Fold each of these.
Amino acid sequence: MFVEAIEKVDQFTRPIHFLLRYYTGSDIVPGTATLFFVNEDGFAITCGHVARQILYANSIYENYLKFQAELRRFDKDPGLAYQRQLLETKFKIGPDSVIRIIFNFINCVSGHKGLSVHLHPTQDLAIIQFRDFDSVQYKGFATFLRDSRTVKPGKYLCRLGYPFPEFTNYHYNKSRNDIEWNKEGRINTPVFPIDGIVTRHIGEANEIVGIEMSTPGLRGQSGGPLFDKNGVIYGMQSATRHLHLGFDQVNREVITDGQRKRVSNYPFLNVGQCVHVELIKQFLREKRVKFYEADSIG
């Protein structure tokens, strides 16, 4: 059903690789997200929550470096632990705080010298513009659904993204106390499609802003396109909603492996949430970004 569409959409859908480091350890936490290009001029869209990690990466690290600089003043102070607590409060750093984010755009453009990010004021949507680049490394671009009235419950669609961070080209530089990219290991992450049907429209302030899908969007697929069998774009994967089913089983006795046990279970249905195509097109128009449309066929 989606073989040719996936091959088409994959040409302009790309991963973003992230590395995160937390305050309480030197472990490197890899992550992925997705973007896709909307024209030949280096404009792409992704989720707002993805774009914010890109926008705030430098300020997060600068805040941590300032914290470290002030803490060093108390290296020989017997009250170092107390001073650390005061500074953690001052700089809003806790055990679960991210102190470093670095990212890498994979096979997007070559030699770009600047990046502009436009966040939608209310929805989980952002435009990324690669500026002053040498050449594009993607082929083709998104073609958006012209008439969104065809987006109805029961419509069979597919999403594409990069939920599994299998790249390994990074390391922890102990001498610099920092995380870094390197040229060793695996540099790619496999693309992963997931299909489903439209279940409901998602409304907000008397406006349709989203599309609910019968299957969940996976972590890392955020920012990936939602498309039909012809590769026409209907929206963008944004989040997963967790719907409580109400079939709760509390302290129920079951027999498993020949033994009686008591278990509790609170089942949820995980469904995908996508930004609606009309919202995407409206935002692109507001920012005067060129895009293309097509009719749904079949």
Amino acid sequence: MTHSSAAFANQIRFLLQSLNEENADHVFEELREVEAIFASLFKYIFDRPNFCTIFCQSLRSTAISERFLENLSNTLHFSACEKIGIGLALLDSEHLEFRTCGKNFCMAQIEELCANPVPMKSVEQIQNIIMYLHQAEGLYPLLDSFIQMLSLVHLERGASFVLAPLLSDELRKANLLGDLDLFCESRENDFDAILAEMEKERNVDNIMMELGYGCTVNALQCKEILCLFLPLTEATISRLLGTVARTQAGLGDNQNTFVESLSALGSNSLSELPLLSSWNIEILIDSVKQLAPGTNWIGVIEKLDHEGFYVPNYDAFSFLMAAYRHACPDQFPLHAICGSVWKNVQGQLSFLKYAVSAPPEIFTFAHSARQLAYVDAVYGHKFQLGHANHAWLCLDLLSVLCQLAERGHGSSVQSMLEYPLKHYPEILLLGLAHINTAYNVLQYEVSSIAFPLIVGNSMGNGMILHLWHVNPDLVLRGFVDVHIIDPNNMTRILDICKELKMKNRGE
């Protein structure tokens, strides 16, 4: 620091000694640059914990006065708060004249600030000024003026909290009303940000589970509870659906908690409430519709990928589907559950586990945009369209299962494939033949089981031809697997290849 100070002094001395009419403009420009550098350094150390010591030490051989401090502050373009900080720094000096000068300068700047209020950004500066005025003798009138001034200017976040205990009730009320005015006048994007923060702080899961099934005892009580979560956004409703589905049974008797909550809300209709063993889904959905009539229910389903969503059993899955059917006449948005891998992978797996085996009246994949073409000549009579939910004809489902298998969830996916592998492996293999992933792990696993069965069936040549047109690499790998299982299958493989060649020529 001493070396830097000497360098600055020598540079300034050199510029002044070399000053003449010819280089005057250049010298003044150099001095302005030095001034800017010095101001930046000064403001940098201004926020350091040892600023008072450094500042007082740097002035030890200087005769200071209020005029000197004023000139220094103006030259370095200090703000009103920084000027007060200079005065406060001198109050810790060992020299009486420094302390006296600092006190007088500080008082003058505080009086100027009270007369011409400006925003204050530093909470620490506000605290220091208040503590100084509070401890100094005979300065209570100035302390009142300073606090009054602070109540009239904009403070940074945190400063209002520090100031609140010192304000009168009238000023606190005025500040509250002012904050409400600012809130109402905020821009739309600011309002959306506030709502997002509010939504994060709400825990609809815990509140609904704590209150229990009594929340849906009737429409009036249900709406009173749902008002706690207003506005009912798609994300909030999605979390609500996930909660009631997961806890549709076995939640326990929370009637006492529910009654106490109604009392806290000021409800008078507490007598003879019936005990419920599950959520009344019709009352719940109807109440949501009344409080949020413009809800996009497809958007609600799209937001099921949230932390905590999980389908524990088939009853919970059926309950969730009943809720959606009551809420929305549209077909279930399949892209929401098999369009991509969720962040909440366990939640997605739990949903798909019951979706693939559900009867078509509960859940169906029949309206999938990407479906495997149904060919009687290939499938025979094994697969009856009227008695299945078309899960294994849905290419999007097969695609997301392949991706899940390659992300470490192979055992969960394999458990879903047990039934189709046992009853119609050809259909499953043909569907997977349309899917290409990074490693094709699931495709090869299914092929190793299904392809030998097809080769061993004298009626399977049509299926192999179909597979060849879709994914020839999978067929070649299947032939290799069949040969490894039994080298005597080579004759059968050659016969199939000859037939494929003849059929290809015929086409």
